[in-house]
């Protein structure tokens, strides 16, 4: 990456981030270094960084975002959050729809990305809350229900989701390549990155 050039992206979040982050590393020719049990993946190699932990809910993601400036300032933010909040709501009354929505909005505002894409969870209630924030802000979405589930929360094929993200990265790549002063290296870098601020139960 060119010195001083804005980071193209980072992976941040939960078990879905672990899976998709690993798939995107593999697509870039990098072997993911999963922790035992595949519950977290912390890896930075080339222009792609993954920092994801299974089980994170929106308050934990907010806390982590405030600790990682590189995550907050990525070019493309792919955000998946909400399912764990609804799982936690059965035992923690602070997880109300209003509080979850506030957290989603805060996560969005904390990200200084040029473009944000929300991953809509399988859980119908969580999906509606996330979709409503995306609609309100005019953001793009990727709906997990388009992909075959392995269980109530997780997709069966993470590579398929990573492939669906590729056109978004290519669009960013083309826009940067057309920008004044862009060079081949910077354009290539933008195709290799995405930020995933994610939350779905592992």
UniProtKB/TrEMBL annotation:
Residues 13-154 form the SGNH hydrolase-type esterase domain. One of its GO terms (molecular function) is hydrolase activity, acting on ester bonds. InterPro entries: SGNH_hydro, SGNH_hydro_sf. It comes from the Bacteria. It holds the Pfam family Lipase_GDSL_2. This is SGNH hydrolase-type esterase domain-containing protein. It comes from Limnohabitans parvus II-B4. The lineage of its organism: Bacteria, Pseudomonadati, Pseudomonadota, Betaproteobacteria, Burkholderiales.
């Amino acid at each position: 990456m060119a010195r001083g050039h804005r980071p193209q992206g980072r992976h941040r979040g939960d078990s879905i981030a672990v899976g998709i982050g690993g798939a995107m590393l593999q697509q870039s020719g990098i072997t993911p270094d999963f922790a035992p049990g595949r519950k977290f993946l912390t890896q930075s190699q080339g222009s792609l960084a993954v920092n994801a932990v299974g089980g994170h809910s929106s308050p934990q993601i907010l806390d982590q975002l405030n600790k990682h400036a590189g995550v907050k300032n990525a070019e493309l933010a792919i955000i998946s959050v909400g399912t764990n909040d609804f799982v936690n709501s059965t035992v923690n009354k602070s997880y109300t729809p209003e509080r979850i929505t506030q957290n989603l909005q805060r996560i969005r505002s904390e990200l200084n990305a040029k473009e944000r894409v929300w991953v809509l969870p399988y859980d119908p209630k969580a999906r509606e809350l996330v979709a409503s924030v995306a609609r309100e802000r005019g953001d793009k979405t990727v709906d997990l229900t388009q992909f075959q589930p392995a269980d109530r929360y997780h997709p069966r094929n993470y590579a398929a989701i990573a492939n669906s993200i590729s056109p978004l990265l290519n669009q960013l790549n083309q826009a940067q390549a057309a920008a004044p002063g862009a060079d081949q290296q910077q354009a290539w870098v933008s195709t290799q990155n995405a930020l995933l601020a994610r939350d779905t139960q592992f």
